[in-house]
Amino acid sequence: MLRKLSFTILGFCLATFCFAQKGKDSLAVDTTFTDYDELFSELDKLIDSLTSPHSFTLVNVSFGQSFLAFETKDNRSETRRRFMYSPSAGYYDKAGYGIGAGASVVNDGTGLNPYQFSVTGSYDFQKNKAFITGLSLTHYVTKKSLPFYTSPLQNEAYAYFTYRKLWFKPSAGFSYGWGSRANFKEVEEKIQNINLAQRGFTRINTNEKVIDVNLVTSVRHDFYFLNVLASDYIRLTPQFSFISGSQQFGFNQTSNTYATVRRTGNSILYNTENVAFDNNVYFQPISLTAFFKAEYAKGKFFIQPQVMFDYYFPATSNNFTTAFLVNTGVVF
């Protein structure tokens, strides 16, 4: 969405719990931040500076560092910092309708990996100078067999409202995300039993599901400096956001190990193991975030360096985090 309050995705990422196979009974916070492109790419000028709506095409790329939860050799979860790129493109009609597509690309240690793709349809009501409002629906497609954990989130519906007549601009946004993931894996392994063959296999069925609800309230003010060099401007924007939300997360994994009887050649069930987990996070404060954004625009080109200071309430330690990202692109 053109004017999406994109920091809502931070609430999603911070509120999403993942299952870390540490003895198959522990939890870790999902800090994949798969949506940094939406987290920071508020292109407010494209609406706030419009005296009358018009159609345009936006080509954009964001880049910065993010956190990914990798699985180690001993089946533990380890959070690592990685560099993330988020290219995107979209067309936005003067009637308010828009469509866009994007990708998340990460350097996972072996090279650049475009691991997630998204497509978004949106509508923005821009004809009232006192406020703007809109809604969007996004669908995510994530690669399988990744070396790091990603949330099973597949779809997100979002609605927002911003009042523009005050010196500071209050905003409210509501998002609802849902998704599920099923995985089937067959692994051959040696089975040490004198009555059975020395080789067998294990079939692992995994099912995950997640539902996220988030509410974001924020205030900001834009300071403009026009004609700094020539036919350009600089904008400085402090913004404070409060995110609250809830989540339902479910995990179920069944492992069936089979072996071949030496005399008959038939496969028999050797062992069965089931791991199930349900977690309900009730509506609660998620984070308080301060954004400090700068933007330089000249003609069709813009560049936006941005820094974020976030306090994450549910964490028992290391509640405070920072992030920095640069967003740049052209508008046609």
Describe what you observe in this structure.
It is a single chain. The chain has helices at 8-15, 36-40, 45-48; strands at residues 17-20, 26-29, 56-71, 77-92, 97-107, 112-125, 131-142, 148-149, 155-163, 169-190, 196-220, 223-226, 232-261, 267-298, 301-312, 320-331. The strands form 2 sheets. Strands 3-4-5-6-7-9-10-11-13-14-15-16 form a 12-stranded antiparallel barrel. Strands 1-2 form a two-stranded antiparallel sheet. It has a single domain (8-180, 212-243, 282-331), classed as Beta Barrel (Porin), CATH 2.40.160.40. The two termini are 17 Å apart. 5% of the residues lie in helices and 68% in strands. The longest helix is centred in the N-terminal third of the chain and has 8 residues, at 8-15. Strand 14 and strand 15 form a beta hairpin. With 332 residues, the protein is mainly beta.
Please name the defining characteristics of this protein.
332 residues; mainly beta; two-stranded antiparallel sheet; 5% helix
SSE topology sketch:
Elements (H helix, E strand, L loop, with lengths): L7 H8 L1 E4 L5 E4 L6 H5 L4 H4 L7 E16 L5 E16 L4 E11 L4 E14 L5 E12 L5 E2 L5 E9 L5 E22 L5 E25 L2 E4 L5 E30 L5 E32 L2 E12 L7 E12 L1
Antiparallel strand pairs: 1-2, 3-4, 3-8, 3-16, 4-5, 5-6, 6-7, 7-9, 9-10, 10-11, 11-13, 12-13, 13-14, 14-15, 15-16
